[in-house]
Amino acid sequence: MVYSLTWLPEVLQKAGLKISEVPDWRTRGRAEMGRVRGVMVHHTVGQRTGNMPSLNLLIRGRPDLNGPLAQLGLGRDGTFYIIAAGKANHAGDGEWRGIKHTGNSNFIGIEAENAGTPDDPWPDAQMDALRRGVAAILQYIGADSTMVCGHKEYAPTRKKDPLWEMAPFRESVAALMAGGVPAAPLIPATDERLRPTIRRGATGAIVQTLQGLLGVNPDGDFGPATEARLRAYQRDQGLVPDGIAGPRTWASIDPGGTAGVGAVGTVVQPAVVASTPVPAPAVAVAASTMPVADDAQHRVTADARFAYGPDGKSFATVHGPGFQVNGETRVDAFVAANPAAGVGVTPSALRCYTGVMGNEGRLEAVNTYDRAFLSFGIMQWTAGPGNGDGELAALLARLQRTDQAVFDECFGRYGLGARAAEGAMTGRLSFDGNDLTTAASKEQLRSKEWTYRFWRAGHNNVVRACEVAHAAGRIGKFIDDPIHNHPLNAWLTSELGIALVLDEHVNAPSHVPGTLDAALGALLVAGSVPADPATWGQAEEDKLVDKYVAQRATTRMTDPVKRSSHLLALSQQGKLSAARHSFV
After folding, report:
1. What's the CATH number of domain 8-178, 1.10.230.10, 2.70.50.80, 3.40.50.300, 3.40.80.10?
2. I need a labelling partner for 302 at 20 to 30 A (CA). Which of 5, 140, 191, 502 fits?
3. Does the pLDDT of residue 449 top 70, yes or no?
4. Does domain 205-264 bear CATH number 3.90.79.10?
């Protein structure tokens, strides 16, 4: 299950802060959060040396208290470690500003690395990041500076952390919020030898040089494998493990300056979060950096909690009879870096796909635990429940038509086949030439190996482009369905409205347009809206959206209230427009 605090990295990065995402953080938590009302500050009582030596403890917990123990860890260098998107065991019993006994549900916990003694000073970089991070979170949730408290203030008879006074800290946070939480100074664009600061998404000769120094495939594409290896190197060297090669990293990994001006060549940089946004480059779909394929010599393994790829790194969590991984790559970020993949997709449609992705998963997402056996990608295309056909086969058939070599590399080598008519929503999978037409034959798809293979395929840019293209046809399946003598898109014309219908169509396609039809019918019978959508304005569209959301909650969709709340929150944040006629 993906919990609700998935907005944390974006909020912190927009404040100019460094982050490090702990594997599987989106699905980590004791339960779902309640309404987030504030932030609680703790210290770890950890070792006096090292940047974040308490990280594993915060993830796994103690013998007397299960993890996670906070949503965020804060290293001495000012790096925020994103640990959990769900509830954490950090607050216990206490009270602050009318919130009694529900600190774990209503406060985001930040555990800052410190021994918890007067002789362990808090570095300026750590305190500055703490102030900025708290201010950014409070602004995002719509709270003021009074809603940050120390653990010692919430539970004064039990706790003493942090040791410093909270009142001046709140004043500093209030000042930052009044000024809009200005971003911290950015990493310099180049070092003294003119080596550029590069990060995931960059391409060119300088990336090849870095890859050579790291010992990874020098393909010139700064992808996830290069970033992971760079983070590991930075941790080993005591640097900030942010996956960015800036002046300090260059000085460590290449002190002699072999990657000088002559090695730079032409560098294509990705979009970065900064006070002035940098647009993504207009380039064709780039070559892919994929995890190693599994085979008899390179096996996928699993224990009671995680699945591990042939490289020994965890990639999925154990969930019921199968596994789950939410993925890392957002569809909008991929299209921004690879505009060729978004040809024919309007910005409105892309925002709708991105919104639904928050309920389904990212480009590498895989779920092998529910009744559909295996689901993959941004729309979680499934193998189909029971003995039925599924949408996954239609996606894979598209991939075969697009690039047979990529299909063979990802799936064909393992005996998987797919058959679906062009333009069809569903099709049939096969294994070694035998159709998977029964629940028993599909059961093998729950394995750790197939979870890994689909997760690995999600790193291939051709596969990703097929996901985008396949999703693009989805809205067309219902956009002009007749409802009360008019097409659906005559009644609902906002990005929010279309995203809500798309979300239902992905999760329960047989419900569309029936649920919306029932909601509209109730409004018409009550005389709440005119019978001619051509006369509608914003008020009528808002009424239909509200009624539709309520009607969805009565259906057998998966988590209809939570799914609607996610899309409504995006609208409130300005990421999906609720304005009538905004979907174009």
Report:
1. 3.40.80.10
2. 5
3. yes
4. no
